[in-house]
Amino acid sequence: MSGDSSSLYKNRIEWSDVTPIYNTAEEDSVVKIALRDEFVDAFAYLRAVMNSREVSARAFDLTTHCTVLNPANYSVWEYRRFLLKELNEDLKKELKFTEATIEENLKNYQVWHHRREIVLRINEPKVNMHFINEILRNDAKNYHAWQHRVFLVRHFKCPLEPERVVSERFIAQDLFNNSAWTYRFFVISEMSNDFENTEIIDSEIHFALTWINKMINNASSWSYLTGLMEFSSFTAHPELLTYTRNILHPMELVHKPFNLTESSMMPYALIFFAEANLALVSEGQGNSENILLARQSYERLIVVDPLRKRLWRHKLIELMNVSNTSSSPLI
After folding, report:
1. For residue range 244-284, what is the model confidence (pLDDT) as tens digits?
2. Which distant-in-sequence residues (6+ apart) come within 8 Å of 121 by Cβ?
3. What Pfam families does this protein map onto (predicted)?
4. Domain 1-89 -> CATH class
């Protein structure tokens, strides 16, 4: 289209009544961008009809063209939603158009937001997950698709057990899919009344351990377990410290006393072990030995996780300062 000057809006008789609004020289001088004539022309006419709030089929068609040229432009989509309402356009048709645009722009926030707005306007109680399932089948870590699924489940109060099954299926396909773990955390929060149901939490703790056993050095599963423990206690689950302690104790040292300076090089287990010991003290069930184990865990992390050694040194200094403060809840 850019190679054919007759296709430009400035050369179309049906647009002759519109005065295009081009960027000023000052605006273009801020960041010089090489734009095609087609782009400059279309958006000049878009600014003009937006400025006059024109409601017409031609303005709507212009937004279609502009979404192709720049699907990340918020103003285009906002104006298009205005026209959809004023022109009483077919929202089911718009949903299909939006989905086709998403397929060409999988990581584009504005297009996903537009789909959300259209779904809300249609407001059908029965939710069809087919489109989201297809996107995730080809791009299982697509953040926008997972967030859109959260919106659909929460807004339309979808059954949660099928969603829990969905999350497990994606986790089974890829244990490192943090998006699937995060989605499961959302589902469990909804199922357990914002983590008030201890039975569900206990079941999920077992679930997390099952997957940690399959791949011990996996940040996603350890983070999930850590998140669950925000709503439980290590006093109620002493087996977690024993479990982590056994992971950190190498098989070749099984007949020797537990020594974190010789522990396995498992950073995520060490992080969890440090936090678990400190949490136990905060719960009033720990003592100086737990503080010592947390300190040794951070010292070991400096060695086994050198990329974040500054963080572990900070944690270590922070812990030592707190331990030396008589008013500290850790004492």
Report:
1. 999 998 776 667 788 888 788 899 999 999 999 999 999 99
2. 84, 85, 91
3. PPTA
4. mainly alpha
What is the Rg, in whole angstroms, of the alpha carbon atoms belonging to the chain? Answer: 28
- Looking at the chain, list the stretches that DSSP marks H as alpha helix, in order from N- to C-terminal side: 25-30, 37-52, 57-69, 74-86, 91-104, 109-122, 130-138, 143-155, 160-173, 178-191, 198-214, 219-229, 239-248, 267-282, 288-304, 309-323
Tokens of 277: 């010991």
Q: Tokens 């089929």 identify what position?
A: 57
The 3 state secondary structure assigned to 189-222 is HHHCCCCCCHHHHHHHHHHHHHHHHHCCCCHHHH
Interval 313-317 mean pLDDT: 95
| 125 Cβ neighbours under 8 A, 6+ residues apart | 156
Sort 84 into a burial class: Cβ within 10 Å, 0-12 / 13-18 / 19+: buried
**Residue 26 pLDDT > 90, yes or no?**
no
DSSP string of 71-106, one letter each residue: TT-HHHHHHHHHHHHHTT--HHHHHHHHHHHHHH-T
Report how far apart, in Å, the C-alpha atoms of 303 and of each of 219, 261, 262, 299, 313 are.
Answer: 18, 9, 11, 7, 11
**Extents of the domains making up the chain:** 1-89, 233-331
One-letter amino acid for residue 317 of the chain: I
Asked if residues 212 and 169 have their Cβ atoms less than 8 Å apart, the reply is no
